[in-house]
Amino acid sequence: MTTLVRFDGVTLGYGRHPVLTDLSFDIPEGDFLGLVGPNGSGKTTILRAILSTLDPIAGTVTRAPGLRFGYVPQRDQVDYGFPLKVLDVVLMGRYDRIGIGRRPSAEDRALAVSALDHVGIAELAGQPLSALSGGQKQRTLIARALVGKPNVLVLDEPTTGMDLVATTQILGLVRDLHERDRLTVLMVSHALNEVANYVERIALVDEGQFRIGPIGEILGEEVLSHIYGIPVEVASVGGHRIVLARRASGRVQMHD
Amino acid sequence: MIDIILLFRDALYGSLVIGLACSVLGVYVVLRRIVFVGAALAQISSAGIALALFLSGLGVEAFGLTSQPVALSLIVTLLAAMLFSGGTRHRLPPDAKIGMAYALAAAAGILLIAKATAGEAHDIFLSGNILGITRRDTVVLLAISTPVLLLHAVFYKEFLFVSFDQETARTLGYSVTRWNLLLYFTLGLVIAFAMQFAGVLLVFNFLVLPAVTGLLVARSMGGMFAVAVGAGLAAAAIGFSLSVPFDLPTSPTIIAVSGALAFIAWLIRLAQRR
Asked: Nearest CA of chain A to the CA of B180: how many Å?
């Protein structure tokens, strides 16, 4: 299987201050990887290195030739105050292909409508972005990521601030895109329980520690207890994995 | 009444050019929530003029820059624009940096002009004199504004992308820093030239109020630009036409008209929501 991204002894940080050291892992073609950790743990730092927007302090990050990412940013990175229509936002995903100083063609517009159709909101193409629900906004951003025909779909905290229904629908859509289109997916999240039931592999990052592997291996109680530094229990409810932190009294609480 | 207005037609044309250029750039200023960058750059531009006058009074030539206050003002403004266009990963929050620059530039302008030779006579450089715009001044304003507006028309989608979603633009290979620098450079250029005629307050008005009017009623980017330009030109024309025959100060009259147009836009928005 082709390796799309390879980290080899990578140290990441800002300025001269390392945040994460000696990271070595691969993202193979067809992977469905969840990058999970609490806020401030360094997930976004790893993401930036994958996307080439942050250079490593040490080590090498190698990407397959011609590799193209479809990036879905965190919702608060996008300013919904702009009077943009849904189609205008999706077209942005083709801006680099259209070229600097050139206008989108009829073909670009058709591809944008097709991408909206692919995520189930083609009828919203002419609507103002600001008028959409949280889930519809996220679908718009996913359509924008898809319209550039990426090799890897990268989603940064795709369900933050969404209710249970919208969260389930968005995660279901991402899984469909992976299974139906054989799209390689990297999903970044602070919510282990959300990601655990969708992805095939997990990379856990917390307080400088990094562990990556198949879901069954990483979601072991011993591994999680070691990474989080507290006793952790993994329960199964209706076929869904739920990670719980064991309290001192012996009772458990859910780990987000 | 029309005869009196026509007597100042060159000043009217100049006001329209300033209104047009600032309204277009103002769309980015308002959408990017950097309205105080406009105020700070206008204030820094005026401090640049004051610095030139002060140094000139001391007999300092500085490669001939002090005899050309506009040239020194332009250099200072563009340097400040470059500083403001920098990233946000600094210890100082961006708005604190802008506020500090605004306060210091305002104070420096007043102090320098107070100690400049015949400083009182030069106050007009700082407060602007819109009625004093000549045909030559209008040509200069057009010569600056036309390439800036053409640049914005050609690179509309690039300026829009880096303004709307920098992180995604970066992942698609856009040099966000360079596009931001170009945007701020054009902003500094227009402000530095408009400032000498319109003054800090009127330039600030043209950068903010027409764009706000556009944002209130438009449902698309094209609509926002169209309404902003329309509001900027209308405010300049109506304000000018009211101020001359009724002997009102021109800049505040233009600003009052801008405010009235924004109020009407707000009422329209309220009506649309019902």
From this structure: 15
